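Appendix B, example 12.
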Amino acid sequence: MGRLIYGSNITVEVDDQSLFHLDALLSGLNRVTFQLHVILGEARDGNLLSLSVGDSAPLALEYGNSADLQLSVEVMEHMSNQVETGGFVTLPLAGAAPARRS
C-alpha cells in the first residue's frame, strides 16, 4: 500500500496499482481540474473523501513496495473520459484493496 497525501492534513492509504494509474493520468493532463473520489473502507460503508485535483492542488503520491506495476489501457481510457466529460475519478480501482485514512 502506498499513500495519497493532500495538503498537510489528509493522508490516505491506497494500493500502489491505483496510485500508478492516477499518476499516469496526472502526467497526461494539462491544466485540468477534476474531482477525485476516494472510497474509504468497503464501498458499502459509504465513506467517501472528495478532493479537487489540478495544477495547484497540494497532492503527493507515495508508493509502497510494489515493483510490478502495469497500466491498463481500458482503465486509463475510462479515467481520461471521466475527466474530459466533467465527471470524477474514483479510487481505489475495482478489485483493489480498500483505501483507509491514516
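Helices lie at 16-28, 73-84. The chain has a mean pLDDT of 89.
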